[in-house]
Design goal:
Length: about 425
């Protein structure tokens, strides 16, 4: 009894730090022991914290027939009995898995978090709470270790990351089960968790018992190691330099990168990718190839290091560009501006200051343009060290009388005006 009371008090105290007094959180409740345990702890916290509130979301994966439906009914009734708002969705996860050619586990995770986040936003809920516990943390670490994950992934899940809360990361599974048994709290057992069909279950049934036998303190040792990894990752982040960011691209100094240790080059690239989009991903093999190219690169010309559906990595003279690939027809289509007309284009407000219409046409590299001197557009862009592979995006701006007003790069957000064009057009950053 004393043990369970101390566990409850410790968790309720930790909630005060994790959840501000006015917090509204959305609990992912499967009906299993871990999430049911967290449900009952959140109920207790709600009673002692009047402004705190929580709702529940249950996803029926449609994988186990009537068993899945019984679990959904169990969760629904649990919420109704305790006056907790309930959100529900039934999705055939196996079909999504087949369509996307990903595992059932990954498909379920993607669908679950997609709905959780959608509900959170629509209902002005502050956070999402999941019942990941210490043993989940250990299993995840081992899976990521053998899959070749990097420092950040190996340093483990955090109690709170932005709007995602995991209040039970310090709690062992056995402590959860003891608490539920002592308080005779009912829960459901997912039969798929008892079969060694999934990688996590194989670790749980076969590998971890062997580790436990050889190293009884394995949990504490892995937690200590993750703390070291996290501190190392934070130090690396502090050692990274800033970059120039435009609308669809960022770029670094190649000289700075070449002078960095290999691990810092990798982290610099990964952080740059995440800055452009959280969905960007690079495999270890791609990272190794790109780092090798950077270390052996000269400062002459262009070299495409990677070009896939989502982004490109390009060496261009003394810079390395990470560019978000844009499949937006608006970039390729000609534009026109009537006198005094203003438009919003990407991150620029463009205003025609002249008495003529202005036309934005796709650049012909062999065409000449006059800035301080007359030269081919291709030569001018080379002098400006504009990435060769992205010159097709650059507009040539002309007046009705075919005078060159300037050049505009909507991807990089840059523009160059001729002496004729300085008082004819205005660009402002939005």
């Amino acid at each position: 009894m004393e043990k369970n009371k101390l566990l409850e008090e410790a968790l309720l105290n930790s909630f005060k730090t994790l959840y501000p007094s006015h917090e509204k959180t959305l609990l992912a409740l499967s009906g299993g022991p871990d999430s049911v345990f967290l449900f009952h702890l959140l109920l207790k916290y709600k009673k002692i914290t009047p402004l705190f509130d929580f709702s529940v979301f249950h996803l029926n994966h449609s994988l186990r027939g009537k068993e899945s439906d019984y679990e959904a009914d169990f969760v629904k009734n649990l919420c109704r009995k305790n006056g907790i708002r309930f959100f529900y969705k039934k999705i055939p996860v196996d079909k999504i898995s087949a369509q996307k050619k990903i595992s059932l586990e990954e498909a379920g995770r993607i669908v679950r978090y997609s709905y959780l986040n959608s509900i959170r936003k629509k209902n002005q809920i502050n956070s999402i709470s999941t019942a990941h516990h210490l043993d989940d943390q250990i299993e995840t670490f081992l899976m990521r270790l053998f899959q070749g994950a990097g420092l950040k992934a190996l340093s483990g899940m955090k109690n709170r990351e932005n709007y995602l809360c995991r209040p039970l990361l310090s709690i062992k599974k056995e402590s959860i089960l003891e608490y539920l048994q002592f308080h005779t709290i009912d829960f459901k057992t997912d039969s798929s968790n008892l079969k060694p069909d999934f990688l996590r279950n194989k670790l749980r049934f076969f590998l971890i018992p062997q580790i436990k036998q050889l190293f009884p303190e394995y949990r504490n040792k892995i937690m200590q190691f993750q703390k070291i990894l996290l501190e190392t990752h934070l130090w690396i982040n502090q050692s990274l330099f800033s970059w120039k960011k435009l609308k669809y691209q960022i770029y670094f100094s190649l000289k700075k990168l070449k002078n960095m240790p290999e691990i810092l080059i990798k982290e610099q690239l990964l952080k740059g990718l995440k800055n452009l989009s959280k969905s960007f991903y690079l495999s270890t093999a791609h990272i190794e190839k790109i780092v090798n190219s950077i270390q052996t690169a000269s400062f002459q010309g262009h070299k495409m290091l990677l070009n896939n559906r989502m982004f490109s990595i390009l060496l261009c003279y003394d810079k390395i560009f990470i560019i978000k690939n844009i499949y937006d027809e608006q970039i390729f289509n000609p534009l026109s501006l009537k006198p005094a007309q203003k438009i919003l284009f990407k991150n620029k407000k463009i205003e025609n200051l002249s008495s003529d219409s202005l036309y934005f046409t796709q650049t012909n590299p062999g065409e000449k343009i006059t800035f301080s001197k007359t030269k081919k557009i291709s030569d001018f862009l080379t002098e400006k060290k504009h990435p060769f592979h992205f010159r097709k995006f650059v507009y040539h701006i002309k007046s009705e009388k075919n005078f060159s007003i300037g050049l505009f790069d909507p991807v990089g957000g840059r523009f160059w005006l001729t002496p004729t064009g300085i008082d004819k057009i205005k660009f402002e950053k939005v």
